[in-house]
Amino acid sequence: MKKFLFADLDDTLFQTPGKCAGKQALEPAAYYQDGSVCSYTTPAQRSVLALLDSGMTVIPTTARDADGLRRVALPFSFSSYAVIDYGGVVLEPGGAVDKVWQEAMRAAMHAALPGLRELAVHIDDHGARTGYGGRARTIEDFGIPFFLVVKDPDRRPERLAPLEAEVVRPWIADGARDYVVHRNGNNLAILPRALDKAHAVAHVMARLRAEHGDIVTFGMGDSRSDARFMADCDYAIVPRGTQLASLTVEAL
């Protein structure tokens, strides 16, 4: 029976230098657009990667867009599907876009776009009113706008808390708008509820079963937002010291 691992990337298989404090023998794993290194793997992570690559097919399941995925350089190559843009885009083996999934998401995101634009105005008005430097940015890929993201310009993630509590969550609650908040580190993302890695993973699983019959699936991720697609897999893998670990195994 073929085995497939749906794996988040950032903070799961590699991390930024600030999260590698005290660790030795780091190797580059991902790069900024200017070619400088943004993330590294530890020896333990490389050992896990080698184990995974030898026993199953790894399917990236990430918030990264297509360009961000291309700037990942892990010690094995992705040869199957990829789920990117929080599930907004599915890439087929070879890198072509899954057109059926793309058109379904294009329609869903078109319906969600007016709300994202409205919230972006509220976020930027909050910045102008309070002097806060974080601004809303719309993340697009393949010509489709998917979600908003706000990062603290000084990399002080605690300063995102008032924005989330005073602006974002009250706006969503007012009228029970169909959006969700994903907060992890210096990343505050607001997504249409239709945009979910779990939906895209279910779509890919169906394609894999049509191609291979019965399969075994594994899910691996670090954050609360990964839990939904991991719960749909036969087994779940959670790295130590992550947001998801603190909410599950480390909380016991």
Question: Care to describe what's here?
Answer:
This protein is of the alpha/beta class and 252 residues long. The chain contains 7 helices and 12 strands. It has a 4-stranded parallel sheet with strand order 4-1-11-12, with helices on both faces. It has a 4-stranded antiparallel sheet with strand order 7-8-10-9. It has a two-stranded antiparallel sheet with strand order 2-3. A hairpin with a 4-residue loop joins strand 5 and strand 6 (89-91). Helix 3 packs across helix 4. It is globular, with a radius of gyration of 18 Å. It starts with a strand and ends in a 5-residue tail after the last helix.
Helix-strand makeup class: alpha/beta
Compressed to H and E, one letter per element, the order equals EEEHEHEEHEEHEEHEHEH
Rg result: 18 Å
Low-confidence stretches: none
Mean pLDDT metric: 92
**Helix segment count?**
7
Largest sheet: 4 strands, parallel
Overall 3D shape: globular
The percentage of residues in β strands lies in 15-25%
| Alpha-carbon distance between the two ends | 33 Å
- Number of E-state strands: 12
Helix content: 25-40%
Give the spatial strand order of the biggest sheet.
4-1-11-12
State the gist of this model.
This protein is of the alpha/beta class and 252 residues long. It contains seven helices and twelve strands.
